[in-house]
Amino acid sequence: MEFDTWRQENQPSALKDTPSHWIAEHSEPNPFNDVLPKSAFAEKKIWAMGGGKGGVGKSMIMSNLAISLAQRGERVIAIDLDLGGANLHTTFGIEMPRQTMSDFFERRSQTLEGCISNTPIQNLEMISGAQDHLGIANLDYDKKVLLLNEIQKLEADYILIDLGAGTNNNTIDFFNFADLGILTMLPEPTSIENAYRFIKSVFYRKLMTAQHLSPIRNWIQIAMDSKNQEGLRTPGDLYRKVNQEHPDLALKLKDEIQRIRVHLIVNQARTQSDVDLGFSIKSVCKKYFGIQVDYVGYLDYDSAVWQAIRRKRPVLLEFPNSQLASNLERMSHYLSSQKGQSGETE
Question: Which of 80, 278, 280, 342 could form a disulfide with 86 if both were Cys (CB 3.0 to 4.6 A apart)?
Fold first, then answer.
């Protein structure tokens, strides 16, 4: 996979131009001002799986990670937050559950817990995405805050959230809300560029919603526009500007940036160049953003995937002895050893 186009200027094309509507979208109200602290609830690990575009294998990977955890005795709840195209239930090999998230938003169920459905896998339950309400894909602020708080109330060892594709505000907020944010991509130009846009969105939205950085939020917003008149072209420029204006907040900004961590999985790798792509992205993001991209690993292109999908069976159950299943198990073990956004391990 050619990567020189993105690496030549140490800045991929997806990072250069920032449309005004993108800036406006990521300047919306901060939902975390109204979300209850996680310390108020029983300890659990929340993972969120995102992707810059559709068709990169999010649901397949997420469902198998959930199964791997459940097979090790962990109580897992998988949540389908691809509200415009919910299909996580299909990857588990079950029909559309009678209760979905629509019941919660329409108040037919007073709690999110009331929307939980069983799966054929022991220790694994799921909450299906909304299917019968056309407007639900675009959550308003109040519904997003309500959902974030309800997710925290769920009782499980692990909560795995399958997000919709893209970089809209809701998707990024749920990604940043999770203890572990996992990004999956394909080794092809469109997916690479969209993955960078996703990381850029995670980066700036994280800074915009950090309450202790509110005094410099205006500078962060200016830096989001790479064509701004202040000459802030890179995150390094932003840091230097803040250091000039507010030296005390520059340290907080640096600390917040260092706490951002994205876990990357390259799916459908065919060549060594495809495998190495993850290391290249890790290097560029460290140099350009100053953030840690944890390259979890790659999954080979394998016909077992489409065979399992056609049979409506998870790969771990349909082909448990395949190399693909082994790699998914390894990823599950590795990710469960990670503590969260701080980057520390247990």
Answer: 80
